[in-house]
Amino acid sequence: MQQTTKNNILICHWNAGGLRPKINDLKIFCQQYNPDIILLQETKLKPNEPIKICNYAFFHTPRSNCTRGQYGGT
Questions:
Q1: Domain for residue 4, yes or no?
Q2: Which of 15, 46, 58, 61 has its CA 20 to 30 A from that of 37?
């Protein structure tokens, strides 16, 4: 058996601003670029609303309830 070593890792970061309407774009991106790790911010997904993309595990921390409006700001 021959062993291969991967010397590079591809990490992608995306501030989605709402993922549900863009999930197909994310799936296409994953097929084209095959990133090792994908970091998604501002998905606006609910706690019981995981996403499924082949060959990726999904870890999700839902947004806490915000009283300052839709966006947290700085």
A1: no
A2: 46
Does 19 or 71 have the greater pLDDT score? 19
Domain contains 22:
yes
66 has pLDDT over 70 = no
For range 4-13, the mean pLDDT: 87
Residue range(s) defining the domain that contains residue 33: 10-61
Which pLDDT band, with edges at 50, 70 and 90, does 73 fall under?
Answer: low
Torsion of CA 18, 28, 51, 68, to 10 degrees: -10
The tally of domains found in the chain comes to 1
Instruction: Render the chain in DSSP notation, one character per residue.
Output: ----------EEEEE-SSSGGGHHHHHHHHHHH--SEEEEE-----TT-----TT------PPPP-SS-S----
